[in-house]
Write a structure and sequence with these properties.
heterodimer, A: 95 residues, Histone, subunit A, two-stranded antiparallel sheet, 2 strands, B: 490 residues, alpha/beta, Amidase signature (AS) enzymes, 11 strands
Chain lengths: 95, 490
């Protein structure tokens, strides 16, 4: 089963994910099957029903604006894949 | 087996706490027994991703020193407890079962980790799980599968399979897992231990590797309902570092079990006993229902009409949230970075392709699809509305009954590799997802074994913030049957 609207190249681009041709073929087939299942939702009457982002009603949560210690640079950089002079090193972005 | 003849590593937490308090055993002895047990079974079971025995021994000595000085911290002081490897422990690895975080060392403690430390627990071991907690068998771990202690060629369930297996095998006295669609309750059922998913917001998620933030919740595994209550007592409560943490004061969950048991009204949702339920699971659950009837509970059938849509709702919402949450793994600040990226785009695309496994990629792509322009209303918004209906179903049922009783998993532990098709695997969670969508507390309690010797559990689903009542109802069965105290021949 395949779906015309399932453009794996476009989805992979949006998700910043390189997919092999084999992965694309497998996912296209599997996602078409899953979406076929999920489409049963379209039969549910939700007229007048509010969406729930959370299980419980959530309101804005405020916190006192008080300074407190954070991670020191060495600890914050401990897991950086590349670093130099206490900064994270990345490929050149601007030509 | 009585407490006196039970090997130390198989004691219930409550029995061990009593023995520690009476100075019949030391935390050093208890911790050494657990470490020795782990060394004996790990080559076959593989429930751990990492462990630091030296740290555990030091924590045990500190606990014994506190008690010797007359300053024991309570029932968890000196008890070896293991954590699913999605919960941060300072200066220890935190992989979430993923190559993406293979070399990650946590710079801080999760709130639950800090609370266990404050209670004196001996933190020992980080357990295997499906990658980023996505799965129902622990086969999606990037590192290795974990066996079921009752049948090593079968899965322990998932995603917190390592935490359930480690407890069932005597490699901890209690463990913590996380549950987004059933990831504590299903492995608890498949491994023959108790597992509780608290009300959403009851336990802080600060320091939990995020999968689907509106559904994720940390909770305990224990050999008995009482043990689970003791651990929940330590980890529950408001935390300002998690904005979804509920403000409700922590209750005396363990004390609630001592209250006299009164007849309660239990509901059996008819949608949870239909097609696909294994007959041996159904029979074991029916025996648990009979037990409650004998206790004087009023048992009645109820209906949760939107049950058939829970799985679809879940896979829209959870994958949407996952695709957003996992965008943070970009190869820049932490996590895997590909070798010699050509440019920034190449770095993003290849780091993520190399770091994530197949199930994680599948869910990111599905989540990206349901959130993408043109499909958002049809899938994501629609699912959020159906979620409202699912929650209403539960609240309507709770007007008639105090708790719902269902099977936890439609089937007992299955063979490794048996569910290669994603949809077949997703159907494992069909009875557990509803409580996540509705944010309700739910617990799996062991209720027997199949003829082949595989554990079966039943699920109790309670009202929002109704953990005390839920634990009391579970205890009314568990204190008599105590299936979680049985041990596998491993």
């Amino acid at each position: 089963m395949n779906r015309a609207d399932l453009d794996l190249d476009a989805l992979a681009r949006l998700a910043r994910l390189a997919l092999s041709p084999e992965e694309k073929a497998t996912f296209a087939r599997q996602l078409a099957e899953l979406l076929g299942h999920i489409e049963r939702l379209s039969s549910v009457d939700v007229s007048g029903v509010e969406p729930s982002a959370h299980a419980h009603p959530q309101h804005n949560v405020w916190q006192e604006d008080t300074p407190r210690p954070g991670l020191p640079p060495v600890a914050a950089l401990r897991n950086a894949p590349a670093q130099r002079d206490q900064m994270i090193a990345v490929p050149k972005v601007v030509e | 087996m009585t407490a006196a003849t039970t090997p130390l590593h198989y004691l219930s937490l409550a029995d061990a706490a009593a023995a520690l308090a009476a100075r019949r055993i030391s935390s050093a002895e208890l911790t050494e027994a657990v470490i020795a047990r782990a060394e004996a079974v790990e080559p076959r079971l593989r429930a751990f991703l990492s462990a630091d025995p030296a740290s555990a021994r030091a924590q045990a000595q500190a606990s014994d020193a506190r008690r010797a000085a007359g300053g024991g911290l309570g029932p968890l002081d000196g008890i070896p407890i293991g954590l699913k490897d999605v919960i941060a422990v300072r200066d220890q690895p935190l992989t979430a079962g993923s190559r993406m975080l293979e070399k990650f060392v946590s710079p801080y403690d999760a709130t639950v980790t800090g609370r266990l430390r404050d209670a004196g627990a001996v933190l020992y071991g980080r357990h295997n799980c499906d990658e980023f907690a996505m799965g129902s068998s622990t086969e999606n771990s990037a590192f290795h599968p974990t066996g079921n202690p009752w049948a090593l060629d079968r899965v322990p369930g998932g995603s917190s399979g390592g935490s359930a297996a480690a407890l069932a095998a005597g490699e901890a006295l209690a463990t913590l897992g996380s549950d987004t669609g059933g990831s504590i309750r299903q492995p608890a059922a498949l491994c023959g231990v108790v597992g509780l998913k608290p009300t959403y917001g009851r336990v802080s998620r600060y320091g939990l590797v995020a999968y689907a933030s509106s559904l994720d919740q940390i909770g305990p595994f224990g050999r008995t309902v009482e043990d689970v209550a003791l651990v929940l007592q330590a980890i529950a409560g408001h935390d300002e570092r998690d904005s979804t943490s509920v403000g409700a004061p922590a209750e005396e969950f363990a004390a609630a079990l001592a209250a006299p048991s009164v007849p309660r009204r239990l509901g059996l949702p008819r949608e949870y006993f239909g097609e696909g339920l294994d007959p041996e699971v159904a029979a074991a659950v029916e025996q648990a229902v009979s037990h409650y009837r004998e206790l004087g509970c009023e048992v009645r059938e109820v209906s949760l009409p939107h049950t058939a849509y829970c799985l679809d709702t879940y896979y829209v919402l959870a994958t949407a949230e996952a695709s957003s949450n996992l965008a943070r793994y970009d190869g820049i600040r932490y996590g895997h970075r590909c070798a010699e990226p050509r440019d920034l785009h190449d770095l993003y695309f290849r780091s993520r392709a190399e770091g994530f496994g197949a199930e994680v990629k599948r869910r990111i792509i599905l989540g990206t699809y349901v959130l993408s322009s043109g499909y958002y209303d049809a899938y994501y918004l629609k699912a959020q509305k159906v979620r409202t209906l699912v929650r209403r179903d539960f609240l309507r049922a709770f007007a008639q009954v105090d708790a719902l009783l269902t099977p936890t998993s439609p089937i007992p532990a299955f063979q490794r590799g048996e569910k290669a098709d994603p949809l077949a695997m997703y159907l494992c969670d069909i009875y557990t997802i509803g409580a996540n969508l509705a944010g309700l507390p739910a617990m799996s309690v062991p209720c027997g074994f199949t003829r082949a010797g595989l554990p079966v559990g039943f699920q109790l689903i309670g009202k929002p913030l109704g953990e005390s009542e839920l634990l009391a109802i579970g205890h009314a069965y568990d204190r008599v049957h105590q299936w979680g105290r049985r041990h596998p021949n491993l």
